Amino acid sequence: MKAMLLTEIVDVRTHHTPLSLRQLPEPIPSEGEILIKVSTCGVCHTELDEIEGRTPPPELPVILGHQVVGVVEDISHVGQVSPVKIGDRVGVAWIFSACGKCAHCKAGEENLCAQFRATGRDVNGGYAQYMTVPADFSHPIPDTLSDSEAAPLLCAGAIGYRSLRLANIHNGQSLGLTGFGGSNHLVLKMARHLYPNTEVFVFTRNPEEQEFARTLGAVWAGGIEATSPQKLNAIIDTTPVWKPIVEALRNLDNGGRLVVNAIRKEDTDKETLLKLDYPLHLWMEKEIKSVANVTRQDVREFLDLAAEAGIRPEYQEYALEDANQALSELRQGKIRGAKVLKISS
Ligand SMILES: [Zn+2]
Ligand SMILES: [Zn+2]
Fold first, then answer.
1. Could you tell me the pTM of the whole model?
2. Which of 111, 167, 227, 267 lies at a C-alpha separation of 20 to 30 Å from 130?
3. Which ligand has the shortest distance to the CA of 157?
C-alpha cells in the first residue's frame, strides 16, 4: 500500500517535506482489530506537534493521521460478536485505545487514561491506503456526511465539541473563540445550534478569517490583542502560542473560564506570560482549563449532532502524495476551514 511516512523529527518551517511516500505491506490486524481501507484522512495541527517533536511519536517511522474515514475490509480478528460488518463505513479518531480498567476509564474519562494510545502517533494512522484499529474504537459515520465532510469532524469537530462542553456555558452566555481554524469554525457552528441566544466573538489575526467568522454568524471579530466589546463568560483558545492566553484572560468576565484546546504550546513567545497581572487576568475567580484528547462518547455524540444539525466543515482536498504541501500550508497559517487527504473513493 502507499503511505506517507514520518522517519525523523524536523522543523516544518525549514524542512518542507517531512513525510516520504513509501510502498509498504498492508497492515495485519491484531486480535480485536479490524482492517480499514482508508477513503479520507483529515490533516490536523497536532501532526505538526508530532513532526516537530513537541509530542513526539514514541517510535519512528510512523504513519500520521487521526481523522480517518474508511470502509471495513476484514473483521476476522474480532471474534464472534463484531460491532461492525465488512463494508461498513467507519471513522477513527485520536483515541486509538485506552485500558478500560483504570479509575479514569471506569469514570468515563478514558481520554485521561495513563495507557491512552493516540492514532497516528503511538500507532500507525490514516495517511495511508489501509490501517487497523480495535473494532470497539471505530465509529459509525452517519449516512448524511460524505467521506471528506466526516474526516475533519473526527478530531477538529470532536475536540471542539469537548471544548465547548468544558466551556460550561448555558444558552445566552457569551462565548469567545481565539484562533479560527479547523476546530473553532466548527465550534461556532455547534454553538449557534446548541445555544441559539449565545453571542460569539472571534479573535484571530487574519482579516480573512475574521470575515469568515462573521459570515458564519459571529457578532464580532477582531485581532488577538483586541478588546472585545463586552466581557465574555467563556473563551476557547485553539492557537499554538502563549500571547492569546494572556489576552483572553483579560477579556474574560468575572467567574469566566478559559478553555485551552491545544495539545502543546510552542515556546516562541513564552515570555508573554510574564505580563500576567493577577488582578487584571486571574482574580475574580477566573479559571483556566485544558482539553486533553477525546473519548469515544465525544466522537459519537458529536457525529450524531453534526448529522442532526447539519454541521459541515469547510474543507480543501489534497492527494495523499500532497500531504507535505497540506502540512506546510497549515504551518504557514494558510487555513480556511479544514484540510483533507483524499486517498480512495
Ligand atoms: Zn487532531
Ligand atoms: Zn484506563
1. 0.93
2. 111
3. 1
